[in-house]
Amino acid sequence: SSASRASSATSRRAARASSERLDSTSQDVFAARREAREALLSSIEPLARGYEASSSQRSRVLELITTLAHLTPTTAPTASLGGNWTLLYTDAPDILGIPSTPLASLGRIGQEIDSVAGTITNVIQYVPSDLARGLVPASQGDALEQRVVTEYKAVSPTEVELKIRGLAFAPRRVLGQELPSGLRFGAEGPLTLPFGRFEILYLDDELRIVRTGQGWHSINMRETM
Questions:
Q1: What distance in Å separates the CA atoms of residue 87 and residue 125, rounded to the nearest whole number?
Q2: Would you say 6 and 12 are in contact if contact means Cβ atoms under 8 Å apart?
Q3: pLDDT tens digits along 1-16
Q4: I need a labelling partner for 116 at 20 to 30 A (CA). Which of 39, 90, 155, 175 fits?
Q5: Which 3 state secondary structure label does DSSP give 206?
Q6: Residue 44: closest CA among 66, 65, 74
Q7: Cα–Cα distance between 183 and 172 in angstroms, integer?
Q8: Which residue in 167, 147, 165, 155 sits closest to 213, CA to CA?
């Protein structure tokens, strides 16, 4: 009947309008996320991973983190943590308090997350300083890694609980020569100890932002293979 056809046409128009509104909303959210992400990355770029951030700059970064966290595209980020990550920024005193010496500087700081084994390895790399490389040119490219191995368990879609399993020191290169893995030394015990927890505030394919149980924040970039 004509009434039935009219009703069907009205339903199709309503469905089309609803779909268009959803598309428009999705585009708005994507644009807002991209803008907030770019603003955050631009703000931390000159801060040397947080080591050169002033109090006002840290406050500004926290504001930008809060804005971006509301736009996270991942609702259950604990299921997508795997991979190698490099630290871009932190306000955590235990990281910012790591000393450099006249002969050694901090290199890469990051995490290696094995989602199958359920482990997170925190990696801090030390490299020769400019002075050391000037004194011993062959040390160019040398590196010593400190590795803290933890087990992790997702206790919610966004929160992870950690237990420490062991630590290791791994000289990667000495005087320009690669060292075999057998020369690396460390210790992992049969017992694990509580090591804290963190909440994932934001996660996309490349960027991860977490807040520790103590309220400190870290921003990490996923390494590409």
A1: 12
A2: no
A3: 555 555 555 555 555 6
A4: 90
A5: coil
A6: 65
A7: 9
A8: 155
- What are the distances in angstroms from CA 225 to CA 14, 79, 85, 115, 147? 46, 20, 11, 17, 21
Residues 124 and 145 sit within 8 Å (Cβ to Cβ)? yes
State the Cα–Cα distance between residues 44 and 57, nearest whole angstrom: 9
Q: What is the pLDDT of residues 47-101, one digit of tens each?
A: 999 999 999 999 999 999 999 999 999 999 999 999 999 999 999 999 999 877 7
CA–CA separation, 203 vs 114, rounded Å? 17
Q: What is the pLDDT of residues 177-187, one digit of tens each?
A: 554 454 454 54
- Tell me which residue of 105, 100, 184 sits closest to 140, measured CA to CA: 105
pTM assigned to the model: 0.79
pLDDT of residue 183: 45
Q: Is the Cβ–Cβ distance between 96 and 219 less than 8 Å? A: no
Of 214, 205, 196, 203, which is closest to residue 90 (Cα–Cα)? 214
- For the chain, the first-to-last Cα distance in angstroms comes to 62
Assess contact for 185 and 169: CB atoms under 8 A. yes
Pairing of strands 217-222, 159-174: unpaired
Chain-centroid distance, C-alpha 117:
19
Whole-number percent of the chain with pLDDT over 70 = 70
DSSP 42-109: HHHGGGGGGTT--HHHHHHHHHHHHHHHTT-S-S-GGGG--EEEEEEEE--HHHHTPPPBTTEEEEEE
